[in-house]
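Sanity check

After download, print the first record. It should look like this:
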Amino acid sequence: MPHRAADGTSTGEHLHHAAPHSRPGCVEVVCGSMFSGKTEELIRRVKRARYARLPLVVFKPRVDDRYDAVKVVTHEGVGAEAVPVAKAKDILGLVGPNVVVVGIDEVQFFENDIIDVVEQLANRGVRVICAGLDQDYRGLPFGPMPGLMAVAEYVTKLHAVCARCGGEASRSQRLVADEGQLFVGGAAAYEARCRRCFVAYAVEPTSSG
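Expected structure tokens:
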């Protein structure tokens, strides 16, 4: 977890207040289960960068249009403008030379080449903030997330509240028929569960018994 200063910023956030020529790039990963506040944390960090007047851009996978086609949006409806992209490599051509902060939401939906894209940006001096699910509906590592966490300077793991017992939830329970790892859904299709309450297959919602 990133070191927090007295003003609530992380080590990565402080680095980018330096002069442009001295800014080191870095990778930050915000991960956790559904409903753990990943997108909310991404938006918070992006807002801080915007308040600091740092040139930035936010991306999202085109496949995720649950709440808005051109915004990253929390389950509570809080949003921020974003550029939808079909493939990870598209991001490189959309980040101008003046950009110093890049946000990427739902990063687990990209292929493994997102790791190389993120590394290239960080090596150019960009602070890259990635948010995504660390586990899929089976409780297994999700897509490129393990690789991103391995190359990241800072990793923050968030937790939700278990829908069954109220404990600390770290897994995403699918509530609909199995449609593969990349099935995109919201509150009607998933709920957060703890290790004890989680089962590695789709189940009926808790309200139905």
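If your output differs, re-run the checksum step. Summary of this record's structure: The chain is about 20% helix and 25% strand.
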